[in-house]
Amino acid sequence: MLCEKCKKRTATVFYNENINGKTRSYSLCGECAAKLREKGELQDITSMVGSFADPFSKLHDDFFGGFFGIPAHTGIAKAKKCPVCGTSFAEIAESGKIGCPECYETFADELANSIHSIHGTTSHTGNVPARHRAKQQRGEKLKKLKQELKDALEKEAYEHAAELRDEIRKLESENEKEEN
Amino acid sequence: MAWYNTVGKSTDTVVSSRVRLARNISGYPFASKLDAAGANEIIEKVGTTLESAGFRKIAFNDISPVMATSYVERHYVSPEFATKETPHALLLQETGGLAVMVCEEDHLRIQSILPGLALGEAYKNASRVEKRLDEDFDFAYSERLGYLTHCPTNLGTGMRASVMMFLPALSMGGYMDSLAAQLSKIGLTVRGLFGEGSGAAGSMYQISNQITLGITEEETLKKLEDAISQISESERRARNSISGENLERLTDRILRAEGTLKYAWRMSSQEFMKLFSDVRFGIALGIVKDISYEQLGTLLVEVMPATLTLNAENTPKTESARDRLRAQKIQNTLSAPAQP
C-alpha cells in the first residue's frame, strides 16, 4: 500500500482524524508523516505501525494486535457484542480473529480502518458465489420491472401492469425462498 | 504421481505452485467459536459432497500424530491443522494435487498443489472444487468485503497463490533480503519452506500474494506470475555469472554433496536438506548427471522424519536408527536408474 501523500513510498503510518464527529483515516510513509508532524498538521496519531515493510515478520498477527490494541479514539464501545455469536470487539482486538460472518456487519465501523490498512481498500472486486450472483440479477431485474410498472400505471395500461405485478411477486417470492 | 515426484515447467527455479481458496459456510460461526457439534456437521456435509466427487476423507482426529505429520511433510495440510484438537478432516484427491482442509482456520481451505510453475492450472483445479461446493453450500459472503474469513487478512477473494522457488544462487549471493523488501512493495511475501515462521531450508522460498481484497483472482495470479518469471531470470543470470575459482569451488562442493548423499551410512534430515540444495543446484548446472529432479523430489518428502518412519518396515526407535534408515532410503532411491 502506497503513501497517499507522495504515492511513491510504502505507507507505514496510519492514523485517524476526528473533526466534529467526522472520521477520516490516512495512510502515510514515515517521511511524509514526519513532514506533516513538523508543520503541525498531524496531531491525532492513534497508531504507528512500523512492521509493514518487513516481509519476514509475522506481519498480520503483530499488526493486528498493535492496531487494535490502541486506545479507541472515536469512543468505540469495547463492550459491544455481536448479536449472533456474542463476540465482543475487545476479543477481536486481542486475537485479530473475527467471531462469525455477522461480526463484519456488527463491527463494520470499528474494522474499516484495519481492513483498509491491510488491503489498501475496503471493497471486493473478485469472484461472486453463484447464489449471490442470481440474487444480484434478480435485484436488477426487480428494479427494472418496478420502473416499468410505474410507467404502465401512469399510462393507465392496467392489463400490462397486472402482468408486471405478477412477475414482480414471483421474483420477490424467489428472493424470500432463498433467504429462508 | 504427486507434486513432489513429477517435473513441471521451469523446474530449474520452481519446485511447486499452489493456490488455496478460503471459504466459510453461512449459518455457522468461524472456527474459534464453532463447537464440536457444528464442526462435525460441516465435516459430514462437506465429506458427502466431496466423496461423491472422488475425494478420500481422512478424519484427522482418528489418525496417529506420525501419520498427521506426514501429511504436513507432503504439504497437504498446515502444521497447525495437524495438531488441532477440535474436529477436523482432510479431503484428498492426489491427482490434481487437491486437498481440502475442513475446519482449519476457515471452514474450508480448498487447495491445489502442482509441480513446477503451474499457477493457472492450480487455480483452475481449486476453482473447480470450489464451484462444486458452491452448488451445495451457501458461502459467507458480503457484496462489500467479498468472501468472509476468520482472519480479515484473507477477506475478498480468500485466495492465496504461492510458488515454491529454488533460489540457491540468489541466496548464496545474499540477495534474498533485498528481494523480499522489493516484493513487499508490490504486495508479495517471501516465506521459508513450510510457511510462516519457518526458515528457508534448502534454498527454497515460498513467494505469495499478501493482499486479497480489491484485486481479482486473475490480477493476483498475473502479478505473481510476472514476479516469478523475473525472479527466475535473476536467478539464472546469477547462476551464469559464477565462474573461475568460484565455479571450481562450487563444483567441488556439489560433487562432494552428491558423494555424501550416495554413500553416507547415516544422515540427519538437516544434513539432507543442505545436500539436497547442493545436488539440485548441481542438476540445474549440469554438474550432477545421474540424479534426476524426480528422484530428488521424491526424497524431499520420503526422507522427512514422519514419512520415513511411517513407511519403515521396522519403526526406528532411536535418532541414529532413523538416520541410518534415511541413508538407506536415499541410496535405494538413487541407485534406481535416473529417468531421462
3D structure, described in words:
The complex is a heterodimer of chains A (180) and B (340). Chain A contains 7 helices and 2 strands, in the order ββααααααα. Chain A has helices at residues 30-39, 59-68, 89-95, 103-106, 108-119, 130-154, 158-179; strands at residues 13-19, 22-28. In chain A, helix 2 (59-68) packs antiparallel against helix 3 and helix 6 runs antiparallel to helix 7 (158-179). The radius of gyration of chain A is 23 Å and the shape is elongated. Residues 43-67 and 69-76 of chain A have low confidence and may be disordered. Chain B has 2 domains: 3-238, Glutamine synthetase/guanido kinase, catalytic domain (Creatine Kinase, Chain A, domain 2), CATH 3.30.590.10; 244-335, no CATH class. Chain B has 12 helices and 10 strands. In chain B, strand 6 and strand 7 (146-147) form a beta hairpin. Chain B is globular and about 65 Å long. The model of chain B is unreliable at 195-199 (pLDDT under 50). Classes of the chains: A mainly alpha (180), B alpha+beta (340). The interface between A and B is large, with 42 and 49 residues.
Task: Report the helical percentage of chain A.
Answer: 40-55%
Q: Give the termini distance of chain A in whole angstroms.
A: 40 Å
- Helix and strand pattern of chain A: EEHHHHHHH
Cα shape of chain A: elongated
Distance between the termini of chain B: 17 Å
The major β-sheet of chain B equals: 8 strands, antiparallel
Return the average pLDDT of chain A rounded to an integer: 74
- Please list the strands of the largest sheet of chain B in the order they lie side by side: 2-3-4-5-1-8-10-9
The name CATH uses for the topology of the largest domain in chain B is Creatine Kinase, Chain A, domain 2
Q: Helical element count of chain B?
A: 12
C-alpha geometry of chain B: globular
